[in-house]
Write the structure tokens for this entry.
Amino acid sequence: MSVLAPLLEIPDPRRQRELRRAQACVGTHPSRTRFLLLTLVCLAWLLLGFSLLGLSFHVTDPDRAQAALLGALLVGNGGPAWTLLLSHWLAHQR
């Protein structure tokens, strides 16, 4: 049997630096409470969009119905998208 030599020798200072960097990254992952909060905020945006959509079907004035429909599309799609974009941006500002 022969002893195999490692393919790459990593110097000890670099190994310590990589270990410190990896340990620093462990705490940067989003927590469960942050995930639940973002989920609830996105669901609130969706419910507001659905309520505007329902309102657009029950309003008799065509202009108001179209405004409610367009508002439902904007709020139902744009609200969660901007919430997630802003939360991601704010998390990386620290």
